Amino acid sequence: MTQITVIILTKDEAIHIARAIASVQGFANRVLVVDSGSRDDTVQLARAAGAEVLQHAWTTHAAQFNWALDQISGQPGWVLRLDADEMVTPALTAEISRGLPDMAGLRLRRQIHFQGQPVRYGGVQALPVLRLFRNGAGRCENRCMDEHIVVDGPVADLREAIIDDNRKPLDWWVAKHNSYASREVIDILNQRHGIGLVDAGPQQGGLKRWIKLRFYNRLPGGLRPGLYFLYRYVLRLGCLDGRQARQFHVLQGFWYRYLVDAKLAEVERHMTAQNVSAATAIRDVLQLEFATSVVTETRKDAA
Length: 303
What we know:
alpha/beta
């Protein structure tokens, strides 16, 4: 039988972790939870559900996941990256259980639910993501945001999906995406100014990544969020989704993208006005400090 280790990164995921672990019981030989200091019952619930739990201080998603890979280095089989708020569908469990093709990595479809409602339109439904790969053949890109698994070898697609269904309050979602926006600004500044944070190696973000880097990021700031929202909400029929899913299109497809542009403009104004480097402006404006592969918050209330 195929040996599969599931890696789940956690911090304060008591609301989700048992559900995630239960969803992989049909095929996982090992579930490894890497926790970064949860203050709720995440660790106890994970252990009660049969997972092995390790503790490691948080820096970025990429660094945390690659640290987890280092803990199983040299072991045979496959690795599945699963977020704590995701779950594997029974159909995907059956597909995996029938056997995996002779590939280095496999893309799964990711179905987003927002506030409990599936997102069915807008061009973001059931997008393929590389999450399942042979142990030793893949690593996570060293990026602040939008990091992908990069594998050494051929990649194929599975038909079935994982479900992304976060059940935390909307205030949590807004705060998380505010933090994400700051980190995405760092990636854009690296692209523009070469601040030396992210990998210059191969990337596997596919067509979406290519469009974002080569087209979207070159449009005028402030204009591009509106154009993207019109594409997603009108041309890709996001307006036909249910109420909560429509909220997702507005918040993630417009508000978040506009917030990234506003923060980027603020940092670049500070660079010009104060005649400082991008790294200094990131520290002064976004209150983020970074060295190679590490991004940490400097604000006093970061904890």
